[in-house]
Each structure stands twice: as C-alpha cells, then as structure tokens.
Amino acid sequence: MRLARLAALACIAAAGVPSSRGDDVPSGEALAWREDYGAALEEARTSGRLLWIQFTGPWCPNCVRMEQDSFPSPAVVARTKSEFVPLRLRADVHQEMALDFNLSGLPASVIVDPDRNVLAVHQGYLGPDDLDGLLGRAVAAHAPRHNPEDLADAPRRAGELVGPPRPKAVETPAKKEEDVELAGFCPVSLVAEKKLIQGQAEYVVEHGGRVYRFANALTFNLFRRDPERYVPANDGRCPVEQLDAGREAQGDPRFGALYRGRLYLCASKDDRSRFVQDPERYAAVGVEAGGNCPHCLAERGEAVPGDPRYSLSEEGRRFWFPDEAHRDAFMSLAPSDTIRR
Fold it and tell me: Average pLDDT of the chain?
C-alpha cells in the first residue's frame, strides 16, 4: 500500500510540468525559507519555535499562487518571524516525508513542534487570512495550558501547579439560542485568529454557567483544554462604559480588543477606540487592588503592577500577578477549592 501511495505522489509530481518553468519554485522575498529539514528542526528546538513545513513544487499552480499571494502577507510574515521556523520542501524530492504526513496533494502546510508532534496539516490552497489562521491555531494548540497569553508572544514553559477545572461538554444545547455567549461566535476564533466565526450547534461547551459555541472540533478542544484563555475578561462587560460612564453594559464581540492575551469586549466602536488608546487603564477594571499584585501588597505593602496573563479568580474576585512565582505564592495560601485561573 505504501509503495502504491508513493507511486501516486510521484505521478502527481511528474504530471503537467510546464516546460516554460525552471526546476525551482519561485522564491519569496518576505519569508526566510529554510531548505534543510535537519537544520530547520534543530533551529526550532534551540529557539523554542514551531516548524512550518511547506510542501510544494513548480508544477503546482496553487503553490505558485501561495508564493505570490499568501506568503508575502504582512500578518503571515510577522507571525512567522516570531513563532515559526519556515521550511520549504519539494514534494518530489521529499516524497517519503510527505507520505509520513499522509499527504496526497499540493500545496500542503504542516506544522510540528520541536518534538515533531504534528499540530496542524492542511492540503490545498490557503489565502493570506486562512494561512494566518492556520498558523494561529497551531500556536494556540502548542501554548501551555497554565499560561494564557497573546498568541503573538513567544510560548513560555513552566510547571503547572494548579490547573483550571475541566468544563463538561454539552451534548445538546443547554440553553436557548439567545442565551449563547458572544452571540454564537466562536471565542477561540476571536482570540487566536481575530475573526468573527459563527459557532456550530454540535460544538458546545458550558463553562462557568455560560454556553459557548465553536467553529469546529479543533477550537472546541482548544477551549476545553484551557477555557480561561478564551473567555472574555470582565465577564464580557464593557470596561470603558464601566469606568467612564459608571454603568454596566454588555460588550459586543464585533468590538473586541486583545490586550496581553485577554479578550475585552467593548459596547461600541468608540468604546473600543478609547480602550485601544489606553488599554492599561481599562483592562484593570473589575480587578482587585487596581490590578496590583495582592501578594506584594500583603507581604511588603508595595503596589506592584500585575499582568493579566498571570490572573486568578477567588470567590468571584479577580487578581493579577507580575509573574507565575507571585501567583503560585498567593495560591499556596488559599484553599484550592476557592481559586480558579
């Protein structure tokens, strides 16, 4: 069977090669493609970045389209520089490796971590936005459970002392359609891809008494793994209206903003503009001690600013910490059944 598949891929590689084209795939100027698998994998290991393997070939029209349209995208270039080691391989030269990934067509995008665990595979053309989305989901799949942070930041690794409770998957919608959070939009897509994508009825999770829908099985599982990474901050209320107008207003997913890895929902376009101009001021709304570290206040009486990436909820109160060590120290003094990241 493997020989038959290998021959099939070879036939795909040999078929329809235009005589007017050279043997090499057009090289993109924006991405610094690596050409050697071993060297690229070692670079991924030493840098802690993910390895993006792009299987391509000069006979493939959609490969050329991606070279021209998708790879030069500023969003793709920026994400790649911070999160990935990009490796481009010709499928006819590396047929065995292509078959190891169960590939049967081109172009093919494969994302693996430094331990060679497969995070994402896509066969076929991807436009700039879809490619950026694939890369974003791969980063989200690889991010540590214990440390919710913006996907633009490099993943940090640390021991997980206390994890979030695992929410139960809802087999059938537990509430009416109007009670679904975020107007039915997928929270993972909002955070990881910065896109409004409607969730599907078959992918539903109830968390903290609220029901969320998800675009697909991948986003569904990402949320179940680390729900606090994706749920809106401030319980979905608009921090701008709360601070400037002194009233509580439900945020709108159309006017969301990401700050240090957390999703904040604003009530209007104007509110979002004000939030973006001064995110530190608004992000701390509803956080105890004005967003300062409670451990530092209690132990030394110092007001040390916290970071929303290192947050904690205790009996309905939310705290920020400057780093994981301060959060762990605070958690060690609190009953484990009263705290939630």
Answer: 78
